[in-house]
Amino acid sequence: MKKRTMSLLSLAILNFAYAQKDTLNQKNIEEVVITGQYTPQSINKSIYKVEIIDAIQIKNMAATNVADVLNQNLNILITPNSSSGDSNANIMGLSGEYTKILIDNIPVVSDKGMGNLVDLTKINVNNIERIEIVKGAMGVEYGNNAMAGVINIITKKNYQKKVTINASLQEETVGKDYDWKKKGYGRHIQSLNLGYRISDSFTLTADINHNDFQGFEGTQKGYKFFDETTNGQRGYEWQPKDLLIANAALRYSKKNTSIFYKVNFLNEDIDYYNPKTDVLAFSGGQRTFTAEDREYNSTRWIHQLNILTKLGSRINYNGDFSYQIQERDYTKKIYDVPNRYVRSESPKRTFYKSEVLYSRGMFSNFLDNDKINFQIGYELDNTKGFADSETFEFNNNGKSVNRSIFNYANFLSAEWNPLKWLSFRPGVRLTVSNKFDRQYNYSLTTRFSTTDKSNIRLILGSANRFPVYDELYTYVVDNNHDIRGNENLKPETGYSGGVSWDFATTNSNSWRMNVGLSGIYMDVKDRIESVIVSNSPLKYTYLNVDNYKSIILGASFNARKDNFSFNAGVSTLGVSQLLNTGNATSNDDFNYYVEANVSANYTLPKANTIFALYYKYTGKRKLYTLESDGASDTGHYVLGDIGDFNMLNFTVSQPFFNNHFELSLGVKNIFDVTSIRNTAQSGDGHNAATDLQNLFYGRSYFARINYNF
After folding, report:
1. How many C-beta neighbours within 10 Å does residue 174 have?
2. Where is the signal peptide (predicted)?
3. Minimal CA–CA distance to 172: which of 317, 63, 51?
């Protein structure tokens, strides 16, 4: 499939022209946001502090997926899993369970549910118009799991040309390794975007993206490696991963009505090569060596329908509907390592499966009044989940998990503008569920326009997080451990309070500058944690026992003039986490670390050469972790370290022939970061923690070509 897809897309690149990028006015894109708004709103008048990453920034980063893009953002740490290939967003020190990932305002399905724990490497960037980020609890607007924040990915919908054809080819090294061949090295990416404006009202679009990652050996020696005296060095640090994503969409827009339908298809193959081999003996004293490898295959279908219209002459209606399904299958293969062939292969089995029916509707603009209005809405989702009996490490006591959870919510908010420079928006949400108790969330947002160029925002909000499959249904029993989920867990609850100030000005030399200051405080109650309930034999279960607090203080600066732009930011994050095993309780002191980022873009006059530089520093962190020998509770917590690291990317892009052809060259991860020391990651009850955490696969070089017709 890899070779055939690559050949077809490469042929498409040679035969089709890469048209001018979406001709929407970029200034308008930057100024208008939709996340948390009643209707699309200018960023200056937005009731929330919304961070924007637009298509131009994404292009200059040469990012291959959303995880690459968000890695440059302050207080967002992308946590990759080098074995599974998944990457989740860590915001305000909280893991992927606490962040809601949306595409066009609709939560994205994942292996374990809806909207959270979404693998960001499964979202390609070639059809993204912008990414909107709101940090802090957004429970009223976006419901469950929007505790740390919301990441809303807005895709391209408007094309002004009659026919638009965008194609590109990108080749990257993986560390120092690169090879075009099958089972070779490197990353090979091909993409094709098509747009056809049928009439003034109808637009048809389609795109396809193929991302072939050949894996990174690192300290391992590849899947072919065999040495009878050495066991454990076969395979890869980062497993090979082949990803194909396709979209097709139809948009209708006329007068006050806009209807957008899109279907998304994803296919992902991940090959896991077991580092360890076993002896397979035959009669007569003959023997060979085998490894139990696995091939994981994920498929995802997302159908979405967005409707924006007026009911009567005044009421605005915004409706989102979606049917989504994601399934991860696996096949076991017994591989004869020295003779290099598959001796046996098991039938395909389902690892995780999620099926979601989702709808969200909002009604606003009821009153003919410039000073006060309100919005009412509903949200429902029915999520069917399945986890195979082998998902939980061993055999889950021979039982698979098959559950369905239905959630329904109503929310109400009002926006009051008593003065031109003052706005209030209080809000409330009630969520009912067939699995959990009723959940109430509240919010109060205030915006002060101190001048035409300056705003102060005060934001209070609450949210909750529902337990995930592992926490509810885990059942792992071996000779040494007993780890069981708890179906009686209640949702975690939390709230955040934030303040932000931004100021924009233009001086006499035509420099446009923006300055911002912000602070957010978060408090999470009833955190779910694995707790020891018996020392002999050692037994664990999950209980609502922990508390978590974090504080972010940040500052940003942006300057633009003619062909030059410069952005810089700095923040400090403090985390206080009270941990409890049942036998020991941790200290709850705040531990702080610093982040900083800088980006600069310059376009050379006449030649139109674009130079782009992106830098981010993530400081050393300290977190409490349980000191454990893997078999018993030592009875106390210790302060572990997570090392600091620097990321630096550089890109040069040169257009030719009146922008019909473009060549981009660059270097990613110039400081060659691979792993960092981490003594704060605890074992999971049956595995001891390691002192190293894989982050990246080292410095890589890339080349990208575009052709514009």
Report:
1. 22
2. 1-19
3. 63
Contact 145, 465 (CB under 8 A): yes
- CA 223, 331, 4, 121 dihedral sign is negative
Q: Phi and psi (nearest 5°) for 470?
A: -55, -40
Kindly report whether the global pTM for this prediction surpasses the value 0.85. Answer: yes
Q: Is the dihedral of CA 83, 88, 92, 97 positive or negative?
A: negative
- DSSP state letter for 586: -
The CATH class given to the 49-708 domain equals mainly beta
Asked if residues 78 and 101 have their Cβ atoms less than 8 Å apart, the reply is no
Give the residue carrying structure tokens 């074995």: 83
Q: Which tens digit of pLDDT belongs to each residue from 236-278?
A: 999 999 999 999 999 999 989 999 999 999 999 999 999 999 9
**SS3 category, 9:** helix
Q: What pLDDT was estimated at residue 685?
A: 39
Burial class (CB in 10 A: 0-12, 13-18, 19+), 311: exposed
Assess contact for 187 and 213: CB atoms under 8 A. Answer: yes
- The ranges assigned to domains in the chain are 49-708
- Write the pLDDT tens digit of every residue in 572-594: 999 998 877 767 788 888 999 99
Q: With helix as H, strand as E and coil as C, how does 122-168 read?
A: HCCCCCEEEEEEEECCCHHHHCCCCCCEEEEEEECCCCCCCEEEEEE
Contact 472, 489 (CB under 8 A): yes
b/e code 535-571 from CB counts within 10 Å (16+ = b):
eeebbbbbbbbbbbbbbbebbbebbbeeeebbbebbb
Summarize pLDDT for 652-698 with one digit per residue, the tens: 999 998 888 899 999 999 999 998 888 876 544 333 446 788 889 99
Alpha-carbon distance of 441 to 378, in angstroms, equals 14
Q: CB under 8 Å to 425, separation ≥6 — which residues?
A: 47, 413, 414, 415, 416, 443, 444, 445, 446
Q: 3-class DSSP state for residue 451?
A: strand
Rounded to an integer, what distance in angstroms lies between the CA atom of residue 165 and that of residue 207?
10
Instruction: Please give the Cα distance from 178 to 162 (Å, whole number).
Output: 39
Pairing between β-strand 401-419 and β-strand 257-272 as defined by DSSP bridges:
unpaired
